[in-house]
Amino acid sequence: MRRSILVFYGSYRRDRQGIKLARWITHAIAARGDHAELIDAKAVNLPMLDRRHSDYAAGEAPAAMEALANTIAAADGFVFVAGEYNGGFQPGLKNLVDHYLTQFAWRPVAIASYSAGPFAGIRAATAWRTTLGAMGMVVTSTPLSLARIGGAFDEAGAPAGEDGARIAKAFPRFADDLCWWIDAARAQRALVGPPF
C-alpha cells in the first residue's frame, strides 16, 4: 500500500541551502513509489505562535493553518530536514510544528540533518529527537546527516561530490527504516486505534 510521507523544512534564509536536501529527499521518496510532499515553513508562512490549531473552535482556524492540519493528520509518516542554527534547530520549522500536536501523534518520523560545516547538523538532529518524541512521534533510529551542504548538490539538484555520494548511498536504509515503522504504526492504528 502506498505511503503518504510529508517532508518538513524550515529555513527562512535568503540563500537557503537545505531546500536542496529537502527537495531531493521528497523526489527520492516518490521514486520509491510512495507519495511525498514537501512542507516548506516559509511557503506556509504561519504567524509566530499565538494560538495553536487546537485553540480554535472547529472551522474557525485560519485557512492555511486548517489546510496543513488536515494534511498532517492524513499522513502516514514524516521526515524533518533539520538545519543547525547556533547549535539548535531552525526557528521557522519549530514555529510551524508548535501550531499542532495531535495531528502528529502515533506516527513515525525520520530526521535528516545538515550543516555548512563538517558536523552535519547533528546537534539540531539531537534537539529534534527530544521535541518530536515529546509530541508523540516515534523517531527512527537511522539518521541521514549531510556535511558541507553547499557543494553536495549539482545545478539540477542531484547529489554531487563526495558528500553528495555519501548521502545518496545512505538514503535507502534511512527510507527503509522509516517505511518499516510507517507500516507497523499504520497496522497498529487500524487494529486498536490510538493508545489512549
Automatic annotation (TrEMBL):
Question: Origin, by domain of life?
Answer: Bacteria
One Pfam entry for this protein is FMN_red
Single GO molecular-function term? FMN binding
Q: Name one GO cellular component term.
A: cytosol
InterPro entries linked to this entry: Flavoprotein-like_sf (IPR029039), FMN_Rdtase-like_dom (IPR005025), NAD(P)H-dep_reductase (IPR050712)
**For the NADPH-dependent FMN reductase-like domain, which residue ranges apply?**
5-142
By what name is this protein known? NAD(P)H-dependent FMN reductase
The opening ranks of the lineage are: Bacteria, Pseudomonadati, Pseudomonadota, Alphaproteobacteria, Sphingomonadales
